[in-house]
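Fold sample X.
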Amino acid sequence: MTVFIFTGPTLPPADARGELDAVYLPPASQGDVYRAALARPRAIGLIDGFFDYVPSVWHKEILWAMSRGVAVFGSASMGALRAAELAPFGMRGVGKIFQAYRSGAIEDDDEVALLHGPAETGFRPTSEAMVNIRPTLQRAQSRRVISRKTRLKLESLAKGLFYPERTYPAILDLAARRGLPARELEKLRAWLPSGCVDQKRADAVAMLRAMREFLASRRAPAGPRHPFEHTKFWDRLVRSAGALHAVENGAREMVPFESVLDELRLEPDTFLEMHREGLLRQLILAEARRHGYAPAPAACARTARFFRRLYRIERRAAFDRWLAQRGLTARRFDEWMAEEALIRAVGPELWLDVRRGLPELLRFTPFYPRLLNRAREKQLALSRAGLDAADPAAEPDALWRSFLEEASADDHPFESESVLQKISPEESESLLRARAREHRFRRLRKSRRP
């Protein structure tokens, strides 16, 4: 089970892990929630997020995550703001700050904004958020440190400061210059180190506890309350976004898809092959779904066993490493295996149509003359030796062994078997016949060498 939490200045990951075992990521920026949702986690928690000079988390990516069955929680800072805006669509807000935004008691983004240090400092805050300043001053009034009139004046002065400049010393100095009671300001200055309220932290902890309760309940996330609408702007974000990949120390790094695709583009043959494979896959799946086909659980299990044997990841540790290298979850692996099972069930039925179009397709390829010349050479040699009509059934084991040895890659010894799984029984027989003719042709050529 995977859970992602975006946090930073509000609640350091070292403190958060005591509340919830999760993958903790830095404050979110645009595209980060989408990247996290690609891994199909059970839940995503948004606490801190960048804004101002960095594009903020987009509402659309949160909606997309929820449309994929991911429970998305928000609190404390950017999370509270987005949760208040997206609560009608199914995002789960937690805490007093969320409630204040939801009710309209506060509206401005700068209420949760603060200045903080870089990642190397653990995003250490260097200013104070208004959502912490207000309850702190209210507590000071309730403890008779300041009067109500002074509290209201201090709140107004703090709100008037640019958010990076909001610190308690700056607020008190400004209040002194504005003539607020010196005695009250001195009492407040002395009281603040032990009396400050960190509402953002309290709300973040409350969200982690709510997520822990949700995860323990095994409840399915509530479905999205509105259908997800694709737009050209969404497609643009998807193209420019990246995926989460594990690195050796267990941390996570973001690698844009376009960067990975750029590497693929440097291998034109592989790039073209992947495009065609993807196109064929989507067409087969669309055809299967159009007819209402659904793979049986046993077929999915067989496909998964075969795939894990193919990549030598039968053992749990090897399987976990394989998933981590690709930024995948076991849940996404199972979903892919269900699609593979569907392709293997439907693919052979379509093979006959594919086979009918192959001769014409081959004529338009650059390797058709090579195949044609070799076919002529083989046919002439076998005919002269009287071997062209020999029955391949007489030597099937040797033929399959030679096929597996020659067609398999060293690191994927069952790759050829995966090819056979995707073709029809009739085409398997044709493949065996082709191997038989090739086997005899090679023996003939070897026997004629001086």
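Fold sample Y, listed below.
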Amino acid sequence: MEKLTPELLLQALPYAYLAVISLIAVCVTCYDKFAAKHLPGRRTREKTLFLISALGGSVAMLLTMQIIRHKTRHKSFMIGIPLIILAQALLIFGIWYLL
């Protein structure tokens, strides 16, 4: 087993970030679905959902929306989140290609 070094921790940081932001995306999406039925005045703003998606939770949010059938009739989400995923993939590819 490898010793935990600062370099190893630094390498793990992007994965930890993605795990945390994905968990946040799932929780916020599930909360908004619950609020839509039980707490209409306490909904999550669409702007907030898109921000969490843009910060890295896009794949988790899209999968969660499909699984719990939330916002699947909204074209802005069914087109916007896949576009965010595409932009993120292009950005990652561009960074990886440049390095």
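Sample Y note: Helices lie at 6-38, 46-68, 75-98.
Also: Residues 32 and 44 are 6 Å apart (CA to CA).
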